[in-house]
Amino acid sequence: MTRWLSFSRRVLYLAVALCAAAASIGRPASAAEGIPTEVLRVCADASLLPFSNERREGFENRIAQLIADDLKVPLAFTWWPQTIGFVRNTLRTRQCDLVMGTAVGEDLMQNTNPYYRSTYALIYRKDSGITAKTLADPSLQGARIGVVARTPPSAVMLRHGLINMEPYQLDTDTRAHHPAQQAVEDVAAARTDAAIVWGPIAGYFAARQQVPLAVVPLMDEPGASPFQYMISMGLRPDEPDWRHWLNDFIIRRQGDIDRILAEYHVPLLNADGTIRAEVAEPDGYRMADYRSPTPPGLRGAETVGAAEVERLAKAGAVLVDVLPTPPKPAGLAADSRWVPPPHRSLPGAHWLPNVGYGAPSDEQEAYFRTGLEALTAGDRKRPLVVFCQPDCWMSWNAAKRAVALGYQSVKWFPAGTEGWTAAGHELVTVEPEPSPVSPNSISKIAN
């Protein structure tokens, strides 16, 4: 099975989204058993979205950047197509330090702990009349279904009597052919009725079609080839320190990794194999339960990570912290004096507390509006980075409200202060920005 996983990853399919290391060739492993100290070299396919491309637009490109930033070294890529000999000609010849995506159990490399788990997905047009949630659904009978040849879904389809298949090539050179992407596009164009595609590819390309497509993650079926696979990173077997470092990185930065995967609409599974629900972006503002999972993105704004925030801050962006002021502890007497703990935030950040509610008070709304005007000197094109903490709808609401106010370069940093410290940066103590509304309005804004 592991050899089959290795084979199919070459061709853009199974869960083996191989990316790996690059640029400086022939460098010996570092003294710490392979941990890069000068440059993180990653070999990757130059044309294999959503995993990687030469413009670094894939999710594996971005996760590799997280690793490089954590190591505080530059990131370099050597491009090599996902064909036979990929590992032999890159990782094994020490032209790379890391393969970004490989199925757990891959026997060509040493594996890290898994950093995500995904599955094959069924795709169909929402207006097609198909309503299937499993391959056993009667609405699939007679449908023309696209599937990449010799992958697990093809055998399970036959089990359910789904014989009207549209086959797509398994062995392919990604410089010229993208069969799984084509399978998604054929569904959108009504050349086929449905397709079964590896989840990361399904989610990414379905979201980019002109017609609405349903993406249904599939559960494993007893007695059949599995649909679900855990994905790890691959490295050479003689580098235990590098593996330990990467395992620690995955633990520390799992939240950041999950947010990147969610932006690319990767179907994610829990450890028990159940489907992890993706949080949909609401049309309006979040009105309650502000500390809960947020959507992967925000229409009209750009979602950024710690490395981008650092670069934006150096370029003059305004950092806006919108974490609410802490509530007074319960049980204090009305006349008791309470001093809240110091607020720690990003260096250079401006704290505008309590402005991220779904329905802010007039004072809170005015504080936010006039505060942004003062911080940007009225320049609606000046970049704004809005944040609080992970799973914080306050920052999502505030970023959305900044877009509505006409700011043209709003960046949402969902990882917030915890993501900043996880990236190895320090926090500093900040005070709330003074309110230009009225001298005593901060107390009203806090309530």
From TrEMBL:
CDD domains xrefs: RHOD
Keywords of this entry: Signal
Chain ranges of the Rhodanese domain: 313-429
Keyword Plastid applies: no
Species name: Azospirillum palustre
SUPFAM superfamilies linked to this entry: Periplasmic binding protein-like II (SSF53850), Rhodanese/Cell cycle control phosphatase (SSF52821)
Protein name as catalogued: Rhodanese domain-containing protein
Signal peptide: 1-31
UniProt cross-references to SMART domains, sorted A to Z: PBPb
